[in-house]
Specification:
homodimer; 234 residues; 6-stranded mixed beta sheet; 28% helix; DNA-binding
DNA sequence: TTATTTCTCATCTTTTTTATTACAAGTTAT
DNA sequence: ATAACTTGTAATAAAAAAGATGAGAAATAA
């Protein structure tokens, strides 16, 4: 019998190219934005595309997605979640290839501008997204639906805001994601009622003369509440 | 330049074994069950495993999952949804291989018994699931969580019941999935209030002397409601 | 007749959601 | 100073949804 490390029981099985593409959301001045870049390889070299990469032999799929995000934005440790597998046989005209799409939420002021430019990447407002290669526009549509669904019952919106944010900022984020207008008094009441926002002593004066108090989201408290069955809703 | 169909721009990229594993839920007499089988290939030949297969070059991933389900149960056209990608580099001790897990909901009286036995498959109550190969027990845990989550805001529970079912059956299904006791009067009131159950003239007398009226779920009506923003809740 | 499950009906309470009125606080621009 | 604007607090009213409970009728097997 062969040594264990050389034993390959699946030798006759079909291998496939595996890629990951990342839908990167950012929130800037009331507008939801997405990061796309000019593709560097054929086919479709030079066309707009989601950022992505093939998955290497020695990394897991989420590791590959994190690698891509680090490469393109210089950011580490950001919200990243698997979205969906795209695997139609003819989805890539280069060669049969499946893609495991992920969506990421980043604080748009944190990314490394040089890194982004270096890779030919650019932010587009959601409504201005150009035609992208392959099935990437469909991926964005799915990601947006997921973001809307997810933000209504999980507190992930904070991942799109600076660590310190104001209540009006938070409200405008929800309004941008869900395309609605919300009542400011009721929104404030509801959000504060969870007891998950920590009020700071500082104010943000960028949007008003009076200035609005800054808050932090209490991740620790949320984690405890979540374990005991708490549900964040809207 | 080569002919287009031979042109392979990704020639130097790493290819990976891609599999799919299916968590198959069934509901039988008040108990949630799962279909597992004795693995036929090394490593771990003969041990309990989820049903699954490698993904072929000429099929999409969901097609592969549907093929597996048809093979093992003789069933076509059943509820099947992508769960999660399992891709740890060393998750399979045979060779590097990623698996795209799916979960399926079947009407447990519909499956083909011969087909199931032929493949060495067997139903286990949720609490009696044995130790499975690789990360399959983790997949089940994730699938169960997803099922609980999903059934609270999408009407997918019906996929586990016969097409004609009674309200008490439906209630016992929800009780089994969520491990709770529900009040029969309130449960009935709530479910009927959606207006999505079509009452039939037949009764099911298997569980009581009086017999309980059979209902069908109105998929068409639900689809319309869903499009106009309706949310099925609990 | 008795026991059991199914089914209806009517409350009642509590909680949640939504809408609205009123107004004060802080600051800048005029 | 005051007008204008955003932020923030309070109170409340109305409406809708959720949850708990009591009472009892219908069907039928044993």
């Amino acid at each position: 019998m062969k040594a264990l490390e050389n034993y390959r029981p699946y030798i006759a099985q079909p291998k496939i190219l595996v890629a990951t593409d990342c839908i990167v959301f950012g929130f800037d001045e009331g507008i939801l934005k997405l990061l796309v870049f000019r593709r560097r390889i054929d086919p479709f070299k030079g066309e707009w595309s989601l950022i992505g990469s093939f998955v290497n032999e020695e990394e897991s799929v989420p590791d590959a997605a994190r690698r891509v995000l680090l490469q393109f934005t210089g950011l580490d440790n950001i919200f990243l979640e698997e979205l969906k597998v795209y695997s139609d046989v003819d989805r890539d005209s280069g060669e049969r290839c499946i893609s495991i799409a992920h969506y990421a939420l980043i604080r748009i002021n944190d990314y490394d501008r040089e890194q982004v430019e270096l890779h030919g990447a650019k932010w587009f407002a959601l409504e201005d997204i150009p035609q992208l290669v392959l099935d990437h526009n469909a991926m964005i549509a799915d990601a947006l639906e997921r973001l809307r669904q997810k933000t209504t019952h999980r507190p992930i919106g904070f991942e799109l805001l600076p660590e310190k944010f104001t209540i009006p900022q938070l409200q405008s984020l929800y309004e941008a994601i869900h395309q609605t207008k919300l009542d400011d008094r009721n929104f404030r009441k509801k959000l504060l009622s969870f007891g998950l926002l920590i009020k700071l002593d500082e104010k943000d004066k960028s949007t008003s003369k009076k200035g609005a108090f800054l808050y932090r989201f209490d991740y620790n408290k949320y984690k405890k509440l979540e374990e005991s069955g708490f549900n964040f809703v809207l």
